[in-house]
Write a structure and sequence with these properties.
The chain is α/β, with parallel strands linked by helices. It has one domain: Aldolase class I (TIM Barrel). The chain is built from 10 helices and 13 strands. The strands form 2 sheets. Strands 1, 2, 3, 4, 7, 8, 9, 10, 11, 12 and 13 form an 11-stranded mixed β-sheet that branches. It has a two-stranded antiparallel ribbon with strand order 5-6. The two termini are about 25 Å apart. About 40% of the residues are buried.
């Protein structure tokens, strides 16, 4: 495995790694000290709003490939935090991800996660770890809508039922580090009814909401900035702890949902075409 390139924007640095089999995966260095790493080559969930799973899951990354993203990046960039939020569903490659988590902690790094929550047994183990944050991606509490935008994301009703049982078993300090991630898609999941339901669920679970702004990579449309702020104010008015997308997560280079899997030959074809 090798670091093939680093592409920079004003905010982020996009790192492209070449794996031994020729696949290319991406990671992002942002906020000056945080590395967002990938855990799989592709993703089986196939979220319709995300570029990472367009071709489904090709394979899991090995433990060595996960930690090597950090090892190669830190030789050039400062890294104090790891966000397991790149390409792939970390819970679907759990043994390798758990081992990598233990390594990162031994390096003194703070580690946070984004996950769809399935398999639930692995989510239970994740929530018990000394992590620095777990955002559980729901994106809709309506089963039909969630199925439309997250075809293989799991049953959201089972997820919420699990959290209702699991979260009270955690300390208050740990519960404060858990949030429901919700990506606003115009005309899909942004109705007042859906947002009120999200707020009520967050309050019932005792967790916050991470309200994400959509980086357009598919056929959906993002909400306007005013609509985004209105959704924030609605939830905050209900008493929900709400976190908005940072400018790093909105950046066209390496922002949420933009990371891709390619083959080295794809780059060659692009160069020839150009």
């Amino acid at each position: 495995m090798r670091l093939l390139s680093i592409t920079e924007s004003e905010l982020n640095k996009l790192l492209t790694f070449e794996l031994g089999d020729g696949h290319l995966i991406e990671a992002v260095h942002y906020r000056g000290d945080t590395l967002c790493i990938s855990t799989q080559v592709g993703c089986h969930v196939r979220c319709a709003f995300c570029a990472s799973g367009r071709n489904g899951l090709l394979r899991n990354l090995s433990y060595e490939e996960i930690v090597s993203q950090y090892a190669l990046a830190r030789s050039l960039l400062p890294v104090k935090r790891i966000a397991v939020a790149g390409i792939g569903e970390p819970l679907a490659n759990w043994e390798n991800v758990r081992r990598a988590f233990e390594f990162f902690r031994s390096e003194g790094l703070k580690v946070s996660f984004y996950t769809t929550g399935f398999p639930l047994g692995n989510l239970s183990q994740l929530l018990d770890l000394p992590h620095n944050g777990v955002s559980v991606s729901v994106h809709s509490l309506d089963p039909r809508t969630r199925k439309e935008i997250m075809p293989l994301g799991g049953n959201v009703e089972h997820l919420i039922s699990f959290l209702k049982v699991k979260l009270p078993l955690l300390t208050r300090k740990k519960r404060k580090k858990v949030s429901l991630a919700y990506l606003l898609l115009k005309g899909v999941n942004d109705s007042r009814e859906e947002l009120v339901r999200l707020g009520q669920t967050a309050l019932e679970l005792g967790v916050g909401v991470t309200l994400l702004y959509y980086n357009k990579v598919g056929s959906f449309e993002p909400v306007s900035q005013q609509e985004y702020e209105d959704a924030f104010n609605l939830l905050r008015g209900m008493g929900v702890r709400v976190t908005l997308s940072t400018r790093f997560r909105k950046d066209k280079l390496g922002g949420c949902g933009t990371l891709m899997v390619r083959k080295h030959t794809d780059i060659y074809r692009e160069e020839v075409k150009a």
